[in-house]
Specification:
The protein has 427 residues and is of the alpha+beta class. It has helices at residues 11-14, 32-66, 69-89, 107-120, 126-133, 137-143, 146-157, 275-311, 323-351, 357-382, 393-402, 410-426; strands at residues 163-166, 182-186, 189-199, 207-213, 224-230, 236-241, 254-264, 268-269, 313-314, 317-318. The protein has a four-stranded mixed sheet with strand order 1-4-5-8. It binds flavin-adenine dinucleotide.
Length: 427
Amino acid sequence: MDEDLFKGITLDDLKMAGGWSVSPGQTYLYAPRERELMLRARAFAQQELAPKAQEAHGQVREIKAGYQGKERRARLREIAQGYLRTLAEAGMSGSLYPEQYGGSNAGVVGECLIDEELAAAGHPGDTIRSVSLVLGTVSILRYGTDAQKKRHIPPRLAGEELSALAITEPQIGSDTSRMQTTAVLEGDRWVLNGQKRFCTGGGLADYVTLFAITDTSTHPHKGMSCFIVPMDHPGVTIRRQLDEVIMADWMDNVHFELNDVDIPKENLLGPLNAGYHVLMDELDTERVTYCMASLGSARRAFEVAAEYSTKRVQFKQPIAMFEGVSFKLAEMYTRIDAARQLVYRTAKMIEAGTPAQLESAVTKLFVAEAVWQVVDHAMQVLGGIGYTTDFPIQAIFRNARLMRIGAGSDEIMKFLIAREVLRTIKG
Ligand SMILES: Cc1cc2nc3c(=O)[nH]c(=O)nc-3n(C[C@H](O)[C@H](O)[C@H](O)COP(=O)(O)OP(=O)(O)OC[C@H]3O[C@@H](n4cnc5c(N)ncnc54)[C@H](O)[C@@H]3O)c2cc1C
């Protein structure tokens, strides 16, 4: 056993209000820097974020009930930016980004460790963090010019600039090869036309990272490019705010149109017609970070259910004493533990720059199903009270369902896995 691995860490460090269910054995997998980051993130999440989570949910609900249009946007932005500033001050934003852009350079693994811990605190701001600091922005880091990186990454990490990701359209979801939004170069400006739907955070964003077809003469995957588009640009119109099952609690998820939106040539992100490559790369990272955040929420559901089961008495004993309940806890724990290892493995691959499309798909499929099963069990353990807003399970439950659709559905993950496996057999 590597003694240094546990230097300075006691079991009590791992047994905070939330997070007690993570096996100390998990730290065997982490490098000392990762282990230290996990503990710091957990302490911050449990001590600073978790106690304020309820109040933050209430604030958002009040704004949504009382304000519309620009006023509502300004107020929601204010809370989102405040949350991101708090994270920046605590060194909890920017794991994916080098120090020169204001990041902490903790890599994909570091980002995942933070994702799990922050999500487990149940603060509504966590969605804006994932959307603004991961989706779209990671592509700027990987494919952006120096000027684009300097212009966009530092203000995003500081919470000043908000961003979102725009892939999906009314007619295309899983099948991006049917993308209809186009961008045409006219002189030194790109002119964009089309529609984007389900843009999480689009209502609050200053910029979106957007995919459009730039060469209609070839297969869309060979003629797609990526752009940085300002949301306040003339020709960008929000058509509809979608009322979703969950994230509307915080984020404005929008359907918007682009009508002759002419942006500078320099807003092209990455090489011309290489947008599909940018997209696939972006999705690999998005999938693992999304997995870890969902797992963090599932862990919270598990911990709430486990604690509840020791206190709730029926038939003269705590319900945890019934095998029908305790076996559910065992299954939940096992799924979370196994799912975490899978995310960690894939995050390491991505960090090393190894192609991980198959592994990302395997991870996303497994974690989405595991999270759904865990949260469903948690709801069952709490019985009727779990279905009410007295406990956070109902919110986690609604969010967990999205994971089987967003960032590539379960079926698309199976399609990707089967394709890669069969390709291997065929050579
Ligand atoms: C809350 C929320 C937030 C989102 N945020 C964003 C965002 O920020 N940015 C963004 O660009 N998009 C976002 N999306 C869109 C999301 O990525 C898509 O919903 C998802 O990719 C599925 O596309 P679709 O909804 O059009 O379903 P469809 O593609 O129409 O699929 C419908 C059903 O058919 C199945 N199906 C499709 N093709 C196949 C196949 N080949 N084999 C088997 N089954 C198949 C699907 O699995 C699904 O069950 C968001 C969606 C939601 C609900």
